[in-house]
Amino acid sequence: MKSVIIGIDLGGTSIKLGLVNISGQIIQSLEWPTPKNKSYHEVIAVFGQMSEQLLRETVYDWGDVFGVGIGIPGFLDFSTCTVFEAVNLGWHQVPLKEELERLWDVPVLLENDANTAALGEMWTGAGKGASHIICLTIGTGIGGGVIINGNIYHGVNGSAGEVGHITVKEHGGRSCNCGKKGCLETEASATSIVLKTLEQVKEASGLLKEEYAKQGNTITAKSIVELAKLGDPTCKTIIAEAGTVLGKALANMCYLLNPELIIIGGGISYAGEILFEPMSEAFRSFALPRLRQNTAIVQAKLGNQAGIVGAASLIHRNIN
Amino acid sequence: MKSVIIGIDLGGTSIKLGLVNISGQIIQSLEWPTPKNKSYHEVIAVFGQMSEQLLRETVYDWGDVFGVGIGIPGFLDFSTCTVFEAVNLGWHQVPLKEELERLWDVPVLLENDANTAALGEMWTGAGKGASHIICLTIGTGIGGGVIINGNIYHGVNGSAGEVGHITVKEHGGRSCNCGKKGCLETEASATSIVLKTLEQVKEASGLLKEEYAKQGNTITAKSIVELAKLGDPTCKTIIAEAGTVLGKALANMCYLLNPELIIIGGGISYAGEILFEPMSEAFRSFALPRLRQNTAIVQAKLGNQAGIVGAASLIHRNIN
User: Fold this and answer.
1) Is the pLDDT of residue A320 over 80?
2) A-interface mutation test, from B156, B177, B250, B293, most A Cβ less than 10 A away
C-alpha cells in the first residue's frame, strides 16, 4: 500500500531528497552535490541513485511511493509542465516531469523552489492552519511565495511572488544583476548584507574585525548573523537596516494582498529579534491599522527542510 | 420569468441604480443624490423608490428580477454580510443585505465599490476574457480591485486591493489623511493633481491661468485633464508625473501578482496618452522583461457605468 512521498529540493549547490510520510514528517533524507556543468540527464541520474539509496536504507520500495514532488530553482511553464529556465543549472525548456514519470512510473509534480518553501511551511511549519500567506526567503537573493485560499498563486506566467526585484529605493541604490538599481534584493538579501559589512569592516571594532581577518579578509552572511547575536554593533545595525527595508516593503505588499500571515525564512531569518523587531516596527508604521490588525509576521520553522516537505506536499495535496 | 438584475452604485454624492440584462447591458438607469447626514434607513428608502420608478418605467416588475447587487464605498464584513464601515456615509456595522432581502424578497449581494468597478470591467469592459487583473480607479482617492482566477480577492479581512496607501516616497511626500506621508494617493490621485496644479498656477501661462480665474481662483481635476489635452504644459507635466509614479507602483505590484491585465479607470484616466505613455514607460523600466511580457496596461471602458454593471455581475455570477 502506498504510504510515502519523495520530496526533492533541487538547488544550484546541492540536491536534498527526502522520504516524507502523509503527515509531512521527513522519515529520512539525503543531501548530495548538484552535478556541475552537466546536462539535465546527469541530474536525473542522481535523482535516481538518491531515491534508490533512500528506499534501500528504509523499509520502502517504489510500490509504496505516491509520487515525487520537486522544487526547482527557476521558472516553470505550467502549461507544458516543463522547466522553462533555471539559470543556475543552465537549463532551458527541460521536460523534467515527462522524463521522470516515464522513468519511475509514479506521478511527478514540479514547482518553483520559493513556492515549495511556502507550501512546506504551510503544511507542517509556521503557516499551519493559515491559507492567505506571503512567504519570503532571505538568502543569497530574496524569493517569495504567495498563497491564496490555500494554494500557490502563479500569476499569468508563473512569476507571481518574485518579490526580490521590487524597487525599494526611490533614487539610486545598489546595482542589481537584474539590470535595475535599488531592488529589495540589493538592499536586504544576505548578499547585500555581506557587501555592506565588507564596506564598513575597516571602521568596525573587535569581533567583526577579528572574524574578518580569520576568514581571510572576507566574511560570510552566516558569521554576520552570529556576530550580531553576540552583540557586534556593526553587524546588528546592518541587519536591522535590512529589517526596516523589508518591513516597509511587506507593508506595501499587504495593501495588495491583505494576508493573514507573513513568514520570513532563509539564512538571515536566524538573526531573530535583531531582524524581526525593526522589520515589525517598519511594518506597523507603513501598514494602516485595518490592514495590519489581522496580519502576523513570523519566523519560518522548517529551516532547510522546508524545500523537501513543500515538494512532497505537491503530491500530498493530490491524494484524497 | 426572471431576466434582469438591479445594480446599485452607492456613492458619497450620488446613488446610481440600473436595470441590467444577463449580457451585462444596462437597459435603463437613474442617478439620484445620496441623502446626507441621515440614517441608513433613508438610503434604503431611496433604493426602494429608485427601483420602483425604474421598474415602472420599463416593462419589468420584481418577479423579473434575479437579485440586487450593490457596490459600497467602504469596508465589508463578508463573514456577517454587513457593511463594517463606510466613512463617507457615516455607516458602521450596517446589516444592509439582511434588511434589503427582507424588504425585496430577492437575493442581495454586497461588494466594495473598487471591486465592483473591477468586476464590471471584467464582465463587459476592458477586462473581458481576462481572469488575472489589477484594476485601479484614479479619482478623489485611488481605489483598487484584485481579480484572481476570475474572482475578486478579498484577503483576510476584505482589505486586499486597497492600494491607495502604498507608500511610494522613500522620504517625505505629501501628508495623507491616513496619517502617513507619500502614499500613492497623495502623489497620483485627482486630489493630488489638483493640489499640485494650484501650487503651480501662479507660474503658469495662458490656458490654465484663464480657467483658474474663471472658476473663481480654483480648478477642478476634470478641467486639468481637459487643459492637458488642449496642450497646457503645466497640466500635461503634472499628469505625466502622476503617470510615472503609477507606472513604478504598478511594476512593484506585478512582482507580487504577475497579472495579465492592468485596467486604469477613474476621472484622470480620461487624460489618455498624457497619462498612459509615461505610466507605461515607468512600468517598462521597473518591471523585468519576464514579468511585463504578458501584462497589458489598458484604459477602463465602462466609465461611470462600471459600478452598476459590476454590482449586477455579483448576482449574474450566481445564476447558472
Assistant:
1) no
2) B156
B151 touches A at CB < 8 Å = no
- How far is B143 from B163, CA to CA, in rounded Å? 6
A146 touches chain B (CB under 8 A): yes
The alpha-carbon gap from B314 to the nearest alpha carbon of chain A, in Å, equals 20
- Can you say how many angstroms the Cα of residue B173 is from the centroid of all Cα atoms in its chain? 24
Q: Quick check: B75 and A290 CB within 8 A?
A: yes
Q: What mean pLDDT is predicted for residues B73-96? A: 89
Nearest 10 degrees: Cα torsion B35, B41, B46, B52: 180
Q: Which residues pair with B267 in a beta bridge?
A: none
CB contact under 8 A, B293 and A157: yes
Whether A157 sits inside 8 A of B290 (CB atoms) is: yes
Residue type, B293: Q
Query: Phi and psi at residue B62, in whole multiples of 5°?
Result: -60, -25
B59: Cβ contacts below 8 Å, ≥ 6 apart: none
pTM of the entire predicted model: 0.94
Q: Give me the domains of chain A, ranges plus CATH numbers.
A: 4-113+305-316 (3.30.420.40), 126-300 (3.30.420.40)
Q: What is the DSSP letter of A269?
A: G
Residue A236 phi, psi (nearest 5): -60, -45
Q: Can you tell me the distance from the alpha carbon of A288 to that of B41, in angstroms, rounded to the nearest whole number?
A: 30
**pLDDT, average across residues A308-319:** 96
Å between A250 CA and nearest CA of chain B: 10
B295 touches chain A (CB under 8 A): yes
CB-based contact (8 Å) between B132 and chain A?
yes
SS3 label, residue B199:
helix
A223 to chain B, closest Cα gap in Å: 30
In chain A, residues with a C-beta closer than 8 Å to the C-beta of B258 are 154-162
Does the beta-carbon distance from B291 to A146 stay under 8 Å? no
Taking Cα atoms as reference points, which of B257, B256, B251 lies closest to residue B292? B251
Contacts of B285 (CB under 8 A, 6+ apart): A180, B247, B248, B251
Judged by a CB distance cut-off of 8 A, whether residue A144 touches chain B is yes
Q: Which residues pair with A30 in a beta bridge?
A: A17
Chain A CB within 8 Å of residue B133 CB: no
Residue B168: phi, psi to the nearest 5? -110, -15
* Residue A108, C-beta contacts closer than 8 angstroms, at least 6 positions apart: A67, A68, A69, A70, A96, A97, A100, A101
Sign of CA dihedral B25, B29, B32, B34: negative
Chain B residues 244-263 within an 8 A CB cutoff of chain A? 248, 251-253, 255-260
Extract the runs of DSSP E, i.e. beta strands, from B89-219: 91-94, 108-112, 133-138, 142-148, 151-152
Q: What are the cell numbers at A115? A: 513556492
C-alpha cell at A175: 546595482
Residue range B185-235, pLDDT digits in tens:
999 999 999 999 999 998 887 899 999 999 999 999 999 999 999 999 999
* Residues with Cβ within 8 Å of residue B58, at least 6 apart in sequence: B19, B27, B28
